[in-house]
């Protein structure tokens, strides 16, 4: 009987969460919090979609920073835009009722996001304007349930994503608000007072996590205030130790002045950060399809949007250097994803259907970029003894020189993803290999914007 009980205990101990002690709690210090291992799903995912949507989508002019540029900096083109399009005395708050979201369909969004090949999505729950996309009791009536859509946008998208896709659901949240009187009062005291984070920021953060259980919590906008003003370490300690997402949630590095690129789960360092080389810490390149704005701009021209070739290059270079790509779109005020954004998302999905093996769940190789052919980037799966060489330009000669791989006759095999037949290769001098690419017509190409060679048994 005793032996049977011991055997049962041993079997239970092998199950997740059974028989093993819980991990030690994380103290509210950066030293302790930074020691938390990043949940593995995030590094494996590689590709996510950012969505900037809010009241700034109503004027949809210049930037999602419309309010700041119009009221604080009084930039001429923003002042002129208001004078030309709205009556005298029109206030930014008056845009709230015009933020209708009357074409917003969360399940349609989910289908488009799934088609992109992304593995996570991050929605702006609140930008620096302070308008929340859920009915927060701490936002008075400046939210999507009491104003404009009269709907809980966050909940609708959360349900659609979790029920109809394999994407992880994430939320962006701005810590500060440009013109909130309590924040301005705290700022005037050099942040000796903490009325704003105590009455607004922290309650909303706890509410977001408990109510919507995001796997990504993407903080932003510290307003120049240090992390101790926001009580960031205290909140993150709760998030990692006690919250309902403590085992899966990932966080970024924007938790107060001085924390960016130094503390937090993964580093963002700056908008559109793309170092081009391997970093010792997990990082993310958050960038925009519209090169000049995160929110939708009605005046954007076709040349303002990155091409699919440029986006594939961003993804490949980012992943080769150990990062994730978070690619941003901006819906219109009525909740439509503009056609140009939908096209780019679907194009990325088409590319990833062929080349995803070289992106998802990969690791950086010993060389990120080829020394002989600069348009070649490498990823790897050591457990399968595979190296992936992703080349962004098809050579006119039909021969691709790779200066980094060390190959062995009789052991090394080279294939083109989406083609299937082994390719002929020869040793190059002084090192590397030259691969004979197949002669394919345009319609026979496995994809149109970048191609992947699978190299098996190279060093």
Automatic annotation (TrEMBL):
<dbReference type="GO" id="GO:0009617">
    <property type="term" value="P:response to bacterium"/>
</dbReference>
<keyword id="KW-0325">Glycoprotein</keyword>
<keyword id="KW-0378">Hydrolase</keyword>
<dbReference type="InterPro" id="IPR016286">
    <property type="entry name" value="FUC_metazoa-typ"/>
</dbReference>
<comment type="subunit">
    <text>Homotetramer.</text>
</comment>
<feature type="domain" description="Glycoside hydrolase family 29 N-terminal">
    <location>
        <begin position="21"/>
        <end position="357"/>
    </location>
</feature>
<dbReference type="GO" id="GO:0005615">
    <property type="term" value="C:extracellular space"/>
</dbReference>
<feature type="site" description="May be important for catalysis">
    <location>
        <position position="286"/>
    </location>
</feature>
<keyword id="KW-0326">Glycosidase</keyword>
<dbReference type="InterPro" id="IPR017853">
    <property type="entry name" value="GH"/>
</dbReference>
<keyword id="KW-0732">Signal</keyword>
<dbReference type="InterPro" id="IPR057739">
    <property type="entry name" value="Glyco_hydro_29_N"/>
</dbReference>
<dbReference type="InterPro" id="IPR000933">
    <property type="entry name" value="Glyco_hydro_29"/>
</dbReference>
<dbReference type="Pfam" id="PF01120">
    <property type="entry name" value="Alpha_L_fucos"/>
</dbReference>
<dbReference type="Pfam" id="PF16757">
    <property type="entry name" value="Fucosidase_C"/>
</dbReference>
<dbReference type="InterPro" id="IPR031919">
    <property type="entry name" value="Fucosidase_C"/>
</dbReference>
<dbReference type="GO" id="GO:0005764">
    <property type="term" value="C:lysosome"/>
</dbReference>
<feature type="domain" description="Alpha-L-fucosidase C-terminal">
    <location>
        <begin position="368"/>
        <end position="456"/>
    </location>
</feature>
<comment type="similarity">
    <text>Belongs to the glycosyl hydrolase 29 family.</text>
</comment>
<dbReference type="GO" id="GO:0004560">
    <property type="term" value="F:alpha-L-fucosidase activity"/>
</dbReference>
<dbReference type="InterPro" id="IPR013780">
    <property type="entry name" value="Glyco_hydro_b"/>
</dbReference>
<dbReference type="InterPro" id="IPR018526">
    <property type="entry name" value="Glyco_hydro_29_CS"/>
</dbReference>
<comment type="function">
    <text>Alpha-L-fucosidase is responsible for hydrolyzing the alpha-1,6-linked fucose joined to the reducing-end N-acetylglucosamine of the carbohydrate moieties of glycoproteins.</text>
</comment>
<protein>
    <recommendedName>
        <fullName>Alpha-L-fucosidase</fullName>
        <ecNumber>3.2.1.51</ecNumber>
    </recommendedName>
</protein>
<dbReference type="GO" id="GO:0006004">
    <property type="term" value="P:fucose metabolic process"/>
</dbReference>
<feature type="signal peptide">
    <location>
        <begin position="1"/>
        <end position="20"/>
    </location>
</feature>
<dbReference type="GO" id="GO:2000535">
    <property type="term" value="P:regulation of entry of bacterium into host cell"/>
</dbReference>
<dbReference type="GO" id="GO:0016139">
    <property type="term" value="P:glycoside catabolic process"/>
</dbReference>
């Amino acid at each position: 009987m005793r032996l049977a009980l011991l055997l049962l205990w041993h079997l239970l101990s092998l199950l997740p969460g059974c028989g093993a002690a819980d991990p030690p709690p994380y103290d509210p210090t950066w030293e302790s919090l930074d020691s938390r291992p990043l949940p593995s799903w995030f590094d494996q995912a590689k590709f996510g979609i950012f969505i900037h949507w809010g009241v700034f989508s109503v004027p949809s002019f210049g930037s999602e920073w419309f309010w700041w540029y119009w009221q604080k900096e009084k930039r001429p083109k923003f002042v002129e835009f208001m004078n030309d399009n709205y009556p005298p005395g029109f206030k930014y708050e008056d845009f709230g009722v015009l933020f209708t979201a009357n074409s917003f369909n969360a399940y349609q969004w989910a289908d488009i996001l799934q088609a992109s090949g992304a593995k996570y999505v991050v929605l702006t729950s609140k930008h620096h304007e302070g308008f929340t996309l859920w009915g927060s009791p701490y936002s008075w009536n400046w939210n999507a349930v009491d104003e404009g859509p009269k709907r809980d946008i966050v909940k609708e998208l959360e349900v659609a994503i979790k029920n109809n896709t394999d994407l992880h659901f994430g939320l962006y949240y701005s810590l500060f608000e440009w013109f909130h009187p309590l924040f301005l009062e705290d700022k005037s005291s050099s942040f000796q007072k903490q009325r704003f984070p105590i009455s607004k920021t922290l309650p909303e953060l706890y509410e977001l996590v408990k109510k919507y259980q995001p796997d990504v919590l993407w903080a932003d906008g510290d307003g120049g205030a240090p992390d101790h003003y926001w009580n960031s370490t205290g909140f993150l300690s709760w998030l990692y130790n006690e919250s309902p997402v403590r085992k899966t949630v990932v966080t970024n590095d924007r938790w107060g002045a001085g924390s960016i690129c130094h503390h937090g789960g993964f580093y963002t360092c700056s908008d559109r950060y793309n170092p081009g080389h391997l970093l010792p810490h997990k990082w993310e390149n958050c960038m925009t399809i519209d090169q000049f704005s995160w929110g939708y701009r009605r005046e954007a021209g076709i040349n303002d949007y990155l091409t699919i070739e440029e986006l594939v290059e961003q993804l490949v270079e980012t992943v080769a250097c150990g990062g994730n790509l978070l690619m941003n779109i901006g819906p219109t005020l009525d909740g439509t994803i503009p056609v140009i954004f939908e096209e780019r998302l679907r194009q990325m999905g088409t590319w990833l259907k062929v080349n995803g093996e070289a992106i998802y769940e990969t690791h950086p190789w010993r060389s990120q970029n080829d020394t002989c052919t600069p348009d070649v980037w490498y990823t790897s799966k050591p457990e399968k003894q595979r190296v992936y060489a992703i080349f962004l330009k098809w050579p006119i000669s039909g021969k691709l020189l790779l200066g980094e791989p060390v190959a062995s006759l009789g052991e090394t095999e080279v294939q083109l993803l989406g083609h299937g037949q082994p390719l002929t290769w020869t040793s190059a001098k002084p090192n590397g290999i030259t691969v004979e690419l197949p002669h394919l017509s345009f319609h026979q190409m496995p994809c149109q914007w970048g191609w992947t060679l699978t190299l098996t048994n190279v060093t």
